[in-house]
Amino acid sequence: MAESDKQNKTEEPTPTRLKKAREEGNVPKSQEVASALLMLGAVVIMVSYGDWMYDQFRELFRHLYLNLDQPLENRDNAIVVLSDTLRTGFTIMFPMLVVLTSVAILANVGQTGIVYAPKVLEPKGNRISPIQGFKKIFSIQGIAELVKGLSKIAIVGIIIYVTLKDEVDLFKSMMVMPVTSTLIDTGRLILLMFTRILSALIILAIADSIYTRFKHQRDLRMTRQEVKDEFKQAEGDPHLKGKRKEQALGFSRRKRLDHAVLASDVVITNPTHYSVALSYDPERSSAPVVRVKGVRKRALRIREFAREYNVPIMENPPVARALYATTGEGETVPEEHFQIIAEILAYVYRLKENEGAYGN
């Protein structure tokens, strides 16, 4: 049954579906990207501040060595030595802590943006259920994560082996080398290993990021029925929508100007003495209909309502006078005016389409 559901989900997720998933904290995020960027931050720190960190550690050890004769049984002396050690250690590690914390935040925010998902904090029984936990561990996703983790370990192990296998003689000579030379060679090897591991992790991170986004889109796919149901919820049920349209038409049949103008597609003016509001619905009438018309003050009110409701106003004195003289409210436009009215409506529809395009 589950396999059948997956096969039926052939439609790409709608913006509403993606928004709902985001509100639930379901966003495409690759942990491999965060891991690679954290290692990159560590390598940058080592390259930029390696010499400074080495000098600080050397001074720390020199200070501790020079104070070996201090009796630590004395509480005050012990506190002084411990405070100096902690202060120096914090000073050395502070730049790395700042950089790595910033990288960790940016690595996650950069992939998903700022996600506000209070639903994630809601208590759910399946989060603490041992059965659900075992299902996740032994699911296809859990097995895939296990394979991915073991692959990373294997790749890191191979890189470390390849890097160190040619340095056996160097390790032997370190037994008689000065401490400074030993530290420098050790730092060089560590940096070389980090760089190679980082290169491999970046490749893995790119591949995992692409796969994660693909999987996220695939998991959120919808059936055609789900798309239709969502459209109905967004636009409203067609039957209710039809009833609302009938109510609007009922209002427009009254002699209230605001309802009549609101139901119109265009208002044609004299421009000061005559106003005629037209609408065209091919499903209800074979020709445009005069919703309302007026002269002088009534014409002015029609134009005011048109501006208020963003109904286009077209100045065409001959057409306005002709329609006012030959057509009553609620009547269709005479056949001799079809051509000019069709041109006016076509122009109005193009204006609306352009406004919609620019608005989007």
TrEMBL record:
InterPro entries: FlhB, T3SS_substrate_exporter, T3SS_substrate_exporter_C. One of its GO terms (biological process) is bacterial-type flagellum assembly. It holds the Pfam family Bac_export_2. Residues 1-14 have a biased composition (Basic and acidic residues). Keywords: Bacterial flagellum biogenesis, Bacterial flagellum protein export, Cell membrane, Cell projection, Cilium, Flagellum, Membrane, Protein transport, Transmembrane, Transmembrane helix, Transport. Its main location: membrane. GO terms for cellular component: plasma membrane. It is found in: Cell membrane. The chain crosses the membrane at residues 33-54, 92-117, 138-164, 189-211. Residues 1-27 are annotated as: Disordered. It is a multi-pass membrane protein. Belongs to the type III secretion exporter family. NCBIfam families: flhB (TIGR00328). PANTHER family: FLAGELLAR BIOSYNTHETIC PROTEIN FLHB. Required for formation of the rod structure in the basal body of the flagellar apparatus. Together with FliI and FliH, may constitute the export apparatus of flagellin. This is Flagellar biosynthetic protein FlhB.
